[in-house]
Amino acid sequence: MVTNSDFDSKLRDSSMNRRNMLRILGAGVASAAALPILSSCTGTSSAGSSAGAATSSTSSAAATSAGGSSAASSAAGSSAAGGAGSSSSAATQVGGTVTFGSNASDATPKAAYQAVFNAFKKADGVDTKVNTVDHNSFQENINNYLQGSPDQVFTWFAGNRMQFFAAQGLLTPIDDVWSGIQSQYSDGFKAASTAADGKKYFIPFYNYPWAFFYRPSVFKAKGYTVPKTLDELKTLAAKMKKDGLVPIAFADKDGWPAMGTFDYLNMRINGYQFHMDLVASHKQSWTDPKVKTVFDTWKGLFPYLQTQALGRTWQEAAQTLVKKQAGMYLLGMFVGQQFPAGDTDLDFFPFPEVDSNVGTTAVEAPIDGFLLSSKGESPQAKAMMTYLASPEAQLLYLGADPSNVAANKTASTAKYTAMQKHAVELISSAKNISQFLDRDSRPDFASPVVIPALQQFLKDGDSTAVTKSLEAQAKTIFTS
What we know:
CATH topology of the largest domain: D-Maltodextrin-Binding Protein, domain 2
Radius of gyration: 21 Å
CATH class of the largest domain: Alpha Beta
Number of helices: 20
Low-confidence stretches: 1-7, 12-40, 45-55, 59-90
Distance between the termini: 48 Å
Number of strands: 13
Number of domains: 2
CATH superfamily of the largest domain: Periplasmic binding protein-like II
Largest sheet: 7 strands, mixed
């Protein structure tokens, strides 16, 4: 059986050595106006909630029902069997209240977190005051949030998006928490939680692969087969188009989803190391002919992509897959959140091979988790971070939202869905793991530069213009 411990060498050998690039951030804390706006690359967004609107609740309240909950909930139900014991007993309960800033505004992850907070209340006697903001607004306002009056614990991401704020002194190190959980995490996850100063700031909660998702029933009914190469993918897409389907669901209203297509094409054409040297450190030039080839190859897929993508959210695109109007969708496994409860007609295949000399050994598998703000240290906050690191907390969350896999290597996979087990196999088989462009690159480049550049490319298909624009701005930003 494949276990989470198999992620170890892949994570350790992948993007985590990029901590050295944070030396460019050592000039001290910048003003709020000067800090970059961040985008998003995980499974919640502004859909279904007012932009910027926050909601709050406490863990002492009953868990809210997940209206329109996902196929995720069909797996679920059970609390977290398997793994280490809970973080504390009734005799050692901490009590009090902790504040929690959450970007989980969609119904499924919101309900999943509430189940975790209710269990945390039972385990440690701590109430959780939750401040939920829609995903994109949370990211766009994170700079001001952390420099103002932030919640104690908040949801965030591994990679440069964690390391950037650690370098600015906006986070509290949690090495004391890690001293009690070291044995439960692989070296790769430990590295993902460590900043340039050698201190640990991050609690990994789960990760998930990006891949092409599809409905097996549609493939069976139409006689489609899973493509192994890009040429086979295009042949399949042409057949789907002839059959009246949207071949590849596509959306980029929020700016970040298109990054996944670029990441995979670049890694499949030029290899993982070239990709990281391009996006993480700018050791490679955006005007290198190899990068233009990536955009030209992407343009070759335009006839098969869902049109008017810039006016569509990822959730809206997912609904075309749910309704069997689209044949495939390149996205993270969180797409499962959009499927009705009990609907298990969903699977995925890896991004196909483009160059046989490069292969398919790189996989995009971002890590999500939690940070402690610089103003957030307290016994209650440390107790929460310890609890969130436990297999119980992670499996309880996955019970309501099995569109991810647990980060804690002691978490049992016995109750994983078929798709979760497939995800573990894909990630474990990878030679290299990327985090996603807006996590692997500098935040002041990924969001304000790459997003508009890719969106312009989706409008005009001009591969020369997009590479020149990206290179001109990268030269300034990466040498600042």
